[in-house]
Fold this protein.
Amino acid sequence: MPARLLFCLLLICSLLHAQDYSDARLWVYRENSAAAPGRPADVFFLCPTTCMRHVDNMDVNDEQERAAFKKAVDMEKGLYDEHARFFAPYYRQKSLPHYGNPAAQDMAYNDAKKAFLYYLEHDNGGRPFVLAGFSQGSEQALHLLKDVLCDEALRSRMVAAYLIGWCVTAQDLAEAPHLRPAQGETDTGVIVAWNTELPDINGSFLVPEKVRACCINPLNWRTDAAPAAASANKGARFTIFDLGAPIQPAFCGAVINPERGTLNPIFQDEDSIPRKALLFGRGVFHVYDPIFFYENHRENVGKRIKAFAQ
């Protein structure tokens, strides 16, 4: 069978077996209570890659896969839920071994889009919202920004899009001129993104060689190469290993690499450089993107929601 025909058949199959997001089992969190004192906005969050099996897409009915997925969402939930109701769907994400398969991407995005549209129709009620993700979740959120959020009226309710751990490029901005990277600490309707790596990295799975990513420094909320000292870091929090991990103030500083648009951490000493969970090789701190700057990130969500309301 020709590859093109096979691709079309797989796509049709995925559409015919679309998820029904009225099913409570397809939500990790769906905090849709009308009473939300002190939480004037919502967060719609898309989970990073947790499926490591040699399949195209995660099985959302497999209990082990669901547990890993929920753990990854819980690792990030505390960044967002202090000032917002929290919504996070299960979706048939791409597995890491089959990440480049177009049919797998179509299934993952179709689920993410369907969940987002369901949330907008049944739960949002016209409230301001934050779109957020990490890694693959940020990739799918970027597609939502280009697709669903091309609608200006809908986009006017978006506080910000936190696309942490994904490479947003000049080509993305050219394809969708309504996309605006953040320029400061409290601007709204913008994309907030960074990818963390050592300064001697020339290319990675996340930010390929000769590609420049959009980046803002979460320690000083600047987009230039002005370094931020470790004293500006309000605390790393290694929730990847322990959801109750303590806050570690002044864990590292950071500076934007002007050529690659990546965020280079400035460690106090070599002993503080993490050695575990480097899935993409030495010096690529992808897994730690939400970890190293946890408290600055968490505080910033509240500041942008407050700025949006004013």
